[in-house]
Amino acid sequence: MIGVRTLVQLQNMSIVRKSTTKIVQHAAFERLNGYFAVYKPQDVLPRQVATRVKHALLRDLNALPEGYQESVVSIVPDEARLEHNPSALTAVSVPSIRSHRLVRGPRYKHLKIGIITEGHDLKSSGVMALALRDGVKKVEFYQEARLPSIYTVHGRLGFATFSHDIEGKIVEKSTYDHITKPRLEKVLSGLLRIECIVDLFSFLHRHSGVNIRSQEAYELAARGLLQPSGDIPTLLLDMRCSRFEPPDFEIEIQCLRESAQYLRRVVNNIGLFLKSNAVCIKVRKIQDGPFKLEHSLIRKDWRLDPIIEAVRTCNPLMKTFNLLPLELQKDAVLSQNLVDSNLFREIEDIEEV
């Protein structure tokens, strides 16, 4: 008969073997935690991109080898001693079909994934940042940080459409022989001033929550925290012409709280200011906060190994930002300033005494 001590040892062996069945898959799953970027193609919605990435990760995770199969202790007749003792039993370790993937199905069925990037629509392309697992919790904080995005927008002179893109119905045609690159750059400069004439100074004064001429406002601005509370309109920070080959042109736009359709309207306005017409051919995001084109994975790299490497590369980029709610960051700065000013007054009082 098998002893109690031997049975306990066999059970412990079974427990150790059970924990090693997940080590390959589990190690890969643990590395899928943080942020990375993909290159969103045209004619695909952002949510569809996230879904495809999620399905690819789950497929590759479940295809990984599981190591040793889970085993259980089974009490069976001892064939070596049956002649002398017909009731002899022994303990053996046998594979458990309960843990077999054909019985239990795929081990990983769910994966939390969130979309960080704003502004994309069906027709736009470019950098699209995603968050996995714990990173999903900070998506809202990242969006509240209002980090600028950079786009390259391709336009074509000579006609206008209802939807401001090249696929819409043409409603007007015009000439463009009088348009030159210096004239285009002059219009971009003027349009940028018009967009910013929304008087950002007074807007901050009304919605930032502090006196814009105070020391507190200076401290917040020095840390990049002097921002209006709540929702803000789209802001164009910079525009420049990067290519001009009539009738086609390309402009680089740096902006906040934008949408792809808004940028198409900007191209339409550029055509009107040039006393002509223009439509948008393509909207391409080349940077979203810290995420650039070189960090983005193209379609063929939406697989487990490249994404794990991308998460390892992109997580340090996000550590440079203090992803806390904007109001909490403001309160921390103002509280520290209050403590410093009180300490300074106490030192002055001590020196006077």
From TrEMBL:
Q: Identify the residues that the record assigns to the Pseudouridine synthase II N-terminal domain, covering every copy.
A: 121-257
| Highest taxon above the source species | Eukaryota
Q: Which SUPFAM superfamilies match?
A: Pseudouridine synthase
What would be an example GO MF term here?
A: RNA binding
User: Which BP terms in the Gene Ontology apply to this protein?
Assistant: pseudouridine synthesis; RNA processing
The species this protein was found in = Holothuria leucospilota
What the record says about family reads: Belongs to the pseudouridine synthase TruB family.
Q: Which InterPro entries does the protein's record reference?
A: PsdUridine_synth_cat_dom_sf, PsdUridine_synth_N, Trub2
Identification of the protein by name: Mitochondrial mRNA pseudouridine synthase Trub2
